[in-house]
């Protein structure tokens, strides 16, 4: 018997367990194991693709932990040191301004960039 909607899930599970019906059509949606003994810890799709993936998963978990600690260490503290002298502060600010001026020189103006994109689109 094929139904389009679920009327009574508990009844359907009891019917499958007692043998009145062969299988529960929507068992993947409910998250139950194949024998309906309890909930699945991992979906069937993931179990099939990673039958030996538990080892890979452990490696991924450890690499994720390493990556998160690397992300923290990649942070560059841009604030000035507390004991910085006024002279070194001026030098640092001047260097930053020069870097920003270089970026502005290399920047392509927006209207020029848009024009190039339009010309490339037409071709």
UniProtKB/TrEMBL annotation:
<feature type="region of interest" description="Disordered">
    <location>
        <begin position="31"/>
        <end position="123"/>
    </location>
</feature>
<feature type="compositionally biased region" description="Basic residues">
    <location>
        <begin position="106"/>
        <end position="123"/>
    </location>
</feature>
<feature type="compositionally biased region" description="Basic and acidic residues">
    <location>
        <begin position="96"/>
        <end position="105"/>
    </location>
</feature>
<protein>
    <submittedName>
        <fullName>Uncharacterized protein</fullName>
    </submittedName>
</protein>
<feature type="compositionally biased region" description="Acidic residues">
    <location>
        <begin position="53"/>
        <end position="63"/>
    </location>
</feature>
<feature type="compositionally biased region" description="Basic and acidic residues">
    <location>
        <begin position="64"/>
        <end position="88"/>
    </location>
</feature>
<dbReference type="InterPro" id="IPR051272">
    <property type="entry name" value="RIO-type_Ser/Thr_kinase"/>
</dbReference>
